[in-house]
Amino acid sequence: MTDSSSATWLPCGRHRLDISYPRVMGILNVTPDSFSDGGRHVALDDALRHAERMLAEGAAIIDVGGESTRPGAPPVSTQQELDRVAPVIERLVCELDALVSVDTSNPRVIEQAAQLGAGMINDVRALQRDGALEAAIGAGLPVCLMHMQGEPQDMQQAPRYDEPIEDAVAGFLAARVAACEAAGLRRERLLLDPGFGFGKTVEHNLRLLNRMDRLTALGLPLLVGMSRKSMIGKVLGRPVEERLAGGLALAAHAVGRGARILRVHDVGPVMDAVNMSWAVLREGCEHD
Ligand code: 7PM
Question: Where is each Pterin-binding domain found (predicted)?
Answer without folding.
Answer: 22-275
